[in-house]
Amino acid sequence: MMYCLIASNKPLPIRYLPKVHVRRGGFPIEDIQYSFFVEVLYESNAIDVVEDYLLKVYKQYKDPEFQVKTEDGNLLGQIEKSFQKTERFRSYIIISK
């Protein structure tokens, strides 16, 4: 199982998705800039499901911002391709409109 932490300036919904477990909470990490966050456990072949979750939440709000923290370079690369306005750091990426 792979792990990522998604933080946002907007509330993040809990979803039951195939091969992905999204749950509230997690441990706040010093790099996290936003007050709402969820832990995401996913299988390595479910990156597209995590990406789809982010896209759906992104479309729900007017001015969302996300921070995705993970050691999975494949997930970070896929997110960069899917969102136009991203800023990538060593182990996380920031998405904004």
From TrEMBL:
Protein's name according to its UniProt entry: Uncharacterized protein
